[in-house]
Design goal:
alpha+beta; 30 helices; two-stranded antiparallel ribbon; single chain
Length: about 700
């Protein structure tokens, strides 16, 4: 022990004896500083991304069928979704997993996607007119319209008819402009132009009431196809037990509307998708300008904001098409008063409103939302709408379900993240219908159809005899006429599919007693993730559950590998830095050893053993490394602390997911410090080893020769 104390004291005394030691110490300090800062940032980034993945969709662990052809990846997969085999015995699996010590919650899931379309403005207006005429004539129509008095129905018919004429006027102007504008390459079909001219004349509308349904059909067949404003939105959704999902993913919050009532079918649209893809483009551009200005950007100097202003000023058509005669008159008067303008045409007035600058933007933004928005449909899909979703089943045919939109949602801190904010939520029963699995509702519907048609079930082996055997007889009755959609599939089957499914309350057993594709597991102690994975794998083998369990990082696909790539790049960079440092330290120690030839030789002459000389040089290098390495750790920790005070702002919406919010708040963790300490000791000792061995071979004779 005394020897160690002596060596340390000698090392401290000799530490600043040579400028070379300062050079070596500087290299160690710089390398340690870089490693601690980058290591701390990466660890913070890794933990932030873990919070995003775990808190938005994956949970701590994902399970899926071990018989699946593909591996489960929730994010980052290219092309189609992974081919997963369905888990058909989920209740047994859930019961087994719930007994695993560290498992807190098991959330059933199924990830898929579908396209939804909303009709163009002509389709929507004509649908309203048809419903109004049906209600006036006592035909089946929406209950809200059927309850209105005759005079109110007539008033609404006049308003919608005026709206239709307004739309036709705009379409006619577009067509005429396209024909006369030589710079516009758009070809106008004379057949369509002739139809527009016909319906624009007063004679067409004067005779409209004589046969409104025939005239509506003409408008649907000849005018509606001219408009190309039909919206098609791809919706990626997760079918899940919505109650368990909300309990498990505590960052989830409803933005607009309400959560889906417990046990009901329903849909929650990702708020980012609702804002980005279902909102009026003009309104969305105004929102983006507002957010950008809040972050210090100016319309006067920002090219993107200038483009938004220009597009809003020129593209007022989507607003004009939504305005009927009454709304146009009211909005024209409101805008004239607000803008102090004498312009009488609604198009130029809207263009003037959209001519925004840094000075008038706030006022124009309020005027738009206060005056224009109440007169138009702001979103193509609104809270409370029945959304028709069509998707391909696993068998390849198209299936559709009608599901009520209860609201929109987002994950706290990830509101602007396209990765976390692009997936909507659907109840499990509707998901199973879309995916093509037989649910209890479908089974009930099939029984009703079978009862109404007199069909009977036959076995596969008896099918040929039943259909083509002796005495087999197939009788069909045909009735001339057109199928009436209001009476087709009447009775319990129709009512079940269209009305009861929305109001029906399902039990937890009904939600669980069906197929799922995967499930998220939330843990009590996330630090024991690897241990829990091993237990689940063992349990699956013992009880023949047929499931595979993977961590959140693997379930996140390509995203989960990004941190590993960054970490590998960090170690490569640090390895290069410390390799260069090791070469320099080695050469510097060689020079220092040569300079100390006389001292070392004298020590050998008075009886110092080679082991003492070797220990002295190594201890000196270790003290040097620990001192300057410690200073590097302190400096790196200080830099991280300074960065954490303000955080690192996410440069774009994608980085919101990696930062788990608008800013990354780095923090010092033990892992980078411990790794840095090990690397420092290794580099300093290894690079000093050869000079230390050389020092032990210095003889007293050489020292005396050097003295002479």
């Amino acid at each position: 022990m005394d020897r160690v104390v002596l060596l340390v004291r000698m090392a401290i005394r000799n530490l600043l004896a040579s400028p070379i030691n300062l050079l070596i110490g500087g290299l160690i300090l710089f390398g340690t500083l870089v490693f601690v800062i980058l290591g701390g940032l990466l660890d913070s980034l890794n933990q932030s991304m873990q919070r995003s993945v775990v808190g938005s969709l994956a949970g701590h662990i994902q399970i899926y069928s071990s018989a699946s052809k593909d591996e489960l990846t929730l994010y980052g997969q290219m092309g189609s979704d992974p081919d997963l085999k369905a888990i058909t015995d989920f209740p047994r699996i859930e019961e087994a997993l719930s007994k695993v010590e560290n498992v807190k919650m098991v959330v059933p899931m199924g990830v898929s996607g579908a396209l939804i379309t909303s009709g163009n403005i002509v389709d929507t207006t004509l649908e309203k007119l048809r419903d109004l005429y049906k209600a006036r004539d006592g035909k089946p129509s929406p209950p809200k319209l059927a309850a209105l008095p005759r005079d109110e129905l007539d008033r609404r018919i006049v308003s919608e008819t005026s709206h239709m004429r307004q739309i036709i006027k705009v379409l006619r102007g577009d067509a005429e402009k396209a024909m006369t504008d030589m710079l516009n390459g758009t070809a106008v079909d004379p057949y369509n132009l002739e139809a527009l001219r016909r319906v624009e004349h007063d004679e067409f509308w004067a005779d409209f009431e004589k046969d409104p349904y025939a005239n509506l059909e003409f408008l649907e067949n000849r005018i509606a196809p001219i408009v190309t404003d039909t919206s098609m939105v791809f919706l990626r959704y997760v079918g899940t037990d919505l109650d368990k999902f909300e309990q498990s993913f505590d960052r989830m919050r409803v933005i607009k509307g309400t959560p889906v009532p417990r046990g009901h079918r329903g849909f929650l649209i990702a708020d980012l998708i609702h804002e980005e893809q279902m909102k009026l483009k003009t309104a969305r551009r105004l929102d983006k300008i507002k957010d950008a200005r809040a972050n210090g950007r100016l319309i006067a100097t920002d090219d993107e904001l200038k483009r938004f202003v220009k597009e809003n000023r020129l593209q007022t058509r989507e607003l004009v098409l939504q305005l009927d005669g009454i709304k146009t008159q009211a909005l024209t008067k409101s805008l004239q008063d607000a803008l102090g303008s004498k312009e009488t045409a609604i198009g130029p007035l809207l263009s003037e409103l959209m001519t925004t600058t840094d000075e008038n933007f706030d006022q124009r933004y309020q005027q738009f939302y206060g005056l224009v928005v109440p007169q138009v449909q702001l979103y193509r899909v609104n809270v409370g709408d029945m959304l028709t979703i069509k998707a391909f089943t696993k068998s390849g045919y198209i299936q559709n379900v009608n599901v009520k939109v209860y609201g929109t949602f987002a994950f706290t801190g990830l509101e602007k993240s396209p990765l976390a904010g692009s997936t909507s939520l659907m109840d499990l029963m509707s998901f199973r219908d879309l995916y093509g699995y037989l649910t209890a509702d479908k089974a009930e519907e099939l029984k009703e159809i079978q009862k109404q048609t007199g069909a009977k079930t036959i076995s596969r082996e008896n099918a040929e005899d039943e259909l083509f055997g002796e005495g087999a007889e197939v009788v069909a009755e045909a009735t001339a006429g057109v199928i009436d959609p209001d009476t087709a599939m009447s009775g319990a089957g129709r009512k079940l599919r269209e009305e009861d499914l929305v109001r029906r309350v399902y039990t937890e057993h009904e939600f669980n007693d069906g197929v799922v594709l995967n499930a998220a597991l939330m843990l009590n102690d996330p630090t024991r993730l690897d241990e829990t994975l091993a237990r689940i794998s063992k349990l699956s083998d013992e009880q023949n559950l047929g499931i595979k369990a993977i961590s959140w990082q693997k379930a996140s696909g390509l995203l989960g590998q990004i941190i590993n790539v960054f970490r590998a790049l960090l170690f490569v960079a640090v390895a290069i830095i410390f390799f260069i440092a090791m070469v320099i330290i080695n050469n510097a120690m060689m020079m220092a050893t040569i300079q100390r030839t006389q001292v070392i030789g004298t020590m050998r002459a008075i009886g110092a053993q080679r082991g003492l000389i070797l220990s002295m040089v190594l201890v000196e290098s270790m003290v040097l490394g620990l001192l300057f390495g410690g200073l590097g750790m302190l400096a790196g920790s200080g830099v991280l602390g300074a960065i954490a005070a303000k955080g690192i702002a996410a440069p774009n919406d994608v980085m919101y997911f990696f930062f788990s919010g608008p800013r990354l708040i780095p923090h010092v963790t033990g892992a980078p410090l411990i790794i840095a300490l090990v690397i420092i000791l290794f580099v300093t000792v290894f690079s000093t080893l050869l000079p230390a061995v050389m020092a032990t071979r210095i003889s007293p004779l050489r020292a005396m020769q050097a003295d002479e």
